[in-house]
């Protein structure tokens, strides 16, 4: 099997990570800001004490993606079931880190389960996309054509 490099994949990966780390936390920040339930106390004080800042979400998402550095190295092992196991592991660990640190804010949201499910789903989609686009080599079963000839002597 001949290996072929493609430098464009590096820019695709960087663009995907950059967009993911900016757009998903921004959407989560907006969702938390507008769905947080107040318990009747001072609304501004409650909002500030429970809702994470946009910058803290950017940082948290960036750090949560650090699991993909060793996983990207492990994805080079071309064993399909092992690659999928790494997808599940990376998405779960990365999502669990986010949910653990955001749990106080998530619990105050009216859409707690939807937000938790969205965090895990987006991480699973990111991990699946990376594995399939950058590391997965499809099986190449070459059909062998057998032709027989008869020779009359």
Automatic annotation (TrEMBL):
Q: Which domain of life is it from?
A: Eukaryota
An annotated GO cellular component of this protein is: Golgi apparatus
An example molecular function term from Gene Ontology annotations: small GTPase binding
Transmembrane segments in this chain: where? 12-32, 53-75, 81-104, 111-135
What GO terms in the biological process aspect are recorded for it? vesicle-mediated transport
Record carries keyword Transmembrane: yes
Q: Which InterPro entries match?
A: Yip5/YIPF1/YIPF2
Which UniProt key words apply to this protein? Membrane, Transmembrane, Transmembrane helix
Which PANTHER family is this protein grouped with? PROTEIN YIPF
Identify this protein by name. Protein YIPF1
Question: What are the top taxonomic ranks of the organism?
Answer: Eukaryota, Metazoa, Ecdysozoa, Arthropoda, Hexapoda
């Amino acid at each position: 099997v001949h290996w072929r490099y493609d430098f464009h994949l590096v820019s695709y990966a960087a663009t995907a990570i950059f967009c993911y780390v900016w757009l998903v936390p921004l959407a989560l920040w907006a969702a938390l800001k507008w769905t947080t339930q107040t318990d009747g106390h001072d609304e501004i004080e409650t909002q500030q004490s429970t809702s994470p800042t946009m910058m803290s979400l950017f940082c948290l998402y960036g750090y949560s993606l650090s699991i993909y550095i060793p996983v990207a190295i492990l994805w080079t092992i071309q064993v399909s079931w092992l690659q999928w196991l790494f997808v599940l592991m990376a998405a779960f660990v990365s999502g669990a880190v986010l949910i653990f640190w955001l749990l106080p804010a998530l619990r105050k949201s009216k859409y707690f389960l939807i937000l938790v499910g969205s965090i895990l789903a987006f991480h699973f989609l990111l991990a699946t996309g990376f594995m399939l686009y950058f590391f997965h080599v499809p099986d190449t079963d070459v059909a062998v054509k057998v032709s027989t000839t008869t020779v009359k002597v």
